[in-house]
Specification:
2 domains, about 15% strand, about 300 residues, Rossmann fold, Helicase, Ruva Protein, domain 3, globular, alpha/beta, 3-stranded mixed beta sheet, about 45% helix, 5-stranded parallel beta sheet
């Protein structure tokens, strides 16, 4: 764990769930389990011969699966301790060579990523797309806590959390929008059991189904993204506020029933940045309140206060 929590790790980890709730919206049902699993691993009560914790995060796209895992990792270890792999890049016959190396001088992308990294988290996104031989590597990591790369070096995962994400069952989750959460979870996990090998599923400690984001939740996410972007722009010297009308405009523009919150961040960033550029072009400064454009165009202007 990072120096910031070395003084009192128990007190720090006690605040993990609250931290997740401040940053993640619409997934309150999974946050206590994630916080508890990270606390068990970080405090050393799990087996040292296996990863500190293992997670399968499933559900529709844009619901915060990777973001939640990253948020927990940053809280426990500090920034820069998450290594991520996109399994859509490991589908072909050369996938295992790419991951573990082709020859005795090649540690592969996994070996390179973990070189000099003593602890942290590793996440493999879209696990269902990985080549079967890559899944065999995951079995070794989960059960024996290690993987050997082509150089002969053995990577040990006893000080790492390991996460997998998947969109398996996403269509069912979206179609069952009027069903209760427990029913959606059962349906999605049945899809997971059909798609993934049972020996792999059985070795993952936490199997968590993320819920589809309602319009109300996406509105909350919009407000979070706006505050994040305003803070970033403020660091660049732009003193901006957002009006209620501008926030409503961004929430409508960024909402997407299938893609979840992912388009929301892009929408917020694009409209706020475009408003700054327009203000700089017209007046040479960009400070004031963001409001919808008066001409009816789909955008925002900056009104001087």
């Amino acid at each position: 764990m990072s120096d910031a929590i070395a003084i009192d790790p128990v007190a720090h980890l006690r605040g993990l769930e609250a931290h997740l709730r401040r940053h993640i919206r619409g997934q309150d049902h999974v946050l206590p389990r994630i916080a508890a699993a990270f606390a068990r691993g970080a405090l050393g009560v799990t087996s040292p011969d296996r990863p500190r914790g293992s997670f399968l995060l499933v559900g529709p796209t844009g619901t915060g699966k990777t973001e939640t895992f990253a948020c927990a990792t940053d809280y426990v270890f500090g920034p820069g301790h998450l290594v991520s792999f996109d399994m859509s890049e490991y589908q072909g016959d050369s996938a295992i060579d790419k991951l573990l190396g082709e020859h005795r001088d090649d540690p592969g992308l996994l070996g390179n990523a973990l070189a000099g990294v003593a602890e942290g988290s590793v996440i493999f996104d879209e696990i269902e797309k990985a080549h079967p031989l890559v899944l065999d590597v995951f079995l070794q990591i989960l059960w024996h806590g290690r993987a050997t790369v082509a150089t002969g070096r053995t990577l040990r995962f006893g000080r790492f959390f390991v996460g997998f994400t998947s969109n398996i069952g996403a269509a069912d989750a979206i179609r069952m929008e009027r069903s209760n959460l427990s029913g959606v979870e059962r349906a999605v996990l049945r899809c997971v059991e059909r798609e993934l090998r049972p020996e792999l599923i059985g070795r993952i400690a936490e199997r968590l189904v993320f819920a589809r984001l309602s319009p109300a939740v996406q509105r909350e996410i919009c407000a979070l993204e706006v505050q994040r972007e305003l803070a970033r722009l403020r660091g660049g010297g732009f003193d901006l506020r957002v009006s209620a009308a501008a926030l409503e405009f961004l929430a409508r523009e960024g909402f997407h029933p299938q893609l979840g919150a992912r388009p929301m961040r892009q929408t917020v960033e694009r409209h706020l940045q475009d408003a700054v550029v327009r203000a700089l072009f017209t007046s040479g400064e960009a400070n004031g309140e963001l409001v919808p454009t008066a001409q009816g165009a789909r955008g925002l202007d900056i009104r001087r206060i």
